[in-house]
Amino acid sequence: MPKLTVHGTPASTYVRTVRLLLEEAGVDYTLKVVDMFKGENQSPEYLAKNPFGKVPTLEVDGELLYETAAITEYLNTVFAAHKFSPSEPMLQARMRQIMAIIDSYFYPPAIKTIVIERFIVPTQGGKPDEEKIKNAVAPAQTALKAIETLAVGNPYLLGSQVSIADFYLIPIFIYLSQTPEFEAITAQTPKLRTWWDEVNQLESIKKVCA
Ligand SMILES: N[C@@H](CCC(=O)N[C@@H](CS)C(=O)NCC(=O)O)C(=O)O
């Protein structure tokens, strides 16, 4: 069994995506904390692992792999016999489509703007920029409505089995659901609200996202 080390900040949604998969697969790994709030992701040591200074980076027997989509698909293949991706080609494409929508259109307004402004800025002595937050609601709604249309599964996004798409969306919902904007952002996505009520209960979430 290869030795796995996840380098990353425990609070990062992308680090949580990778850890949720590892926990659900029952795979042993070590978490090596890289505290992005202290700038450790910009240290020469970390930049040698990941030139973009982003977390997570996975180390597999000394070999480095970064970018969450690449990491999760690798882990899904090697340690989970593809359990966390649908076998039907169109559903598999839907999973990748949801992951890409989250990367490009949902993470930026939801986490980079709303969650950072609401939760991180005040810890650094600042005040949330309400205008910035207000402007992020519509793009977050657009992304979520697209995901709602593509999420044809039950109780998980793509079926009865949890998939990498769920591992991408869960960590973002954990933070977003604690903001006053959550109500408006999910007002037109009832399926995703039901999804959230159900996936919320996964044991791995308590372990990884506490
Ligand atoms: N494309 C990267 C994105 C990862 C990412 O944005 N991680 C955030 C934390 S959730 C990060 O490293 N932020 C630190 C920074 O931007 O300086 C991936 O898929 O892994």
Task: Describe the protein.
The structure is a single chain. The protein is α+β, with helices and mostly antiparallel strands. The protein has two domains: 4-80, Glutaredoxin, CATH 3.40.30; 89-208, Glutathione S-transferase Yfyf (Class Pi), Chain A, domain 2 (Up-down Bundle). It contains nine helices and four strands; from the N terminus they run βαβαββααααααα. It has helices at residues 13-25, 44-47, 68-80, 89-123, 130-150, 164-176, 182-186, 190-199, 203-208; strands spanning 4-8, 30-33, 57-60, 63-66. It has a four-stranded mixed beta sheet with strand order 2-1-3-4, with helices on one face. Strand 3 and strand 4 form a beta hairpin. The longest helix is centred in the middle third of the chain and has 35 residues, at 89-123. The radius of gyration is 17 Å and the shape is globular. The chain binds glutathione (GSH). Glutathione binds at residues 12-14, 36, 41, 53-55, 67-69.
Overall body shape: globular
Q: How many structural domains in the coordinates? A: 2
Name the helicity range: 55-70%
Which consecutive residue ranges, at least 5 long each, have pLDDT under 50? Answer: none
Structural class: alpha+beta
In this structure, how is the largest beta sheet organized?
Answer: 4 strands, mixed
SSE string: EHEHEEHHHHHHH
User: CATH topology of the largest domain, what is it called?
Assistant: Glutathione S-transferase Yfyf (Class Pi), Chain A, domain 2
Domain GST N-terminal: 2-83
Protein name: Glutathione S-transferase family protein
GO molecular function: glutathione transferase activity
Domain GST C-terminal: 88-210
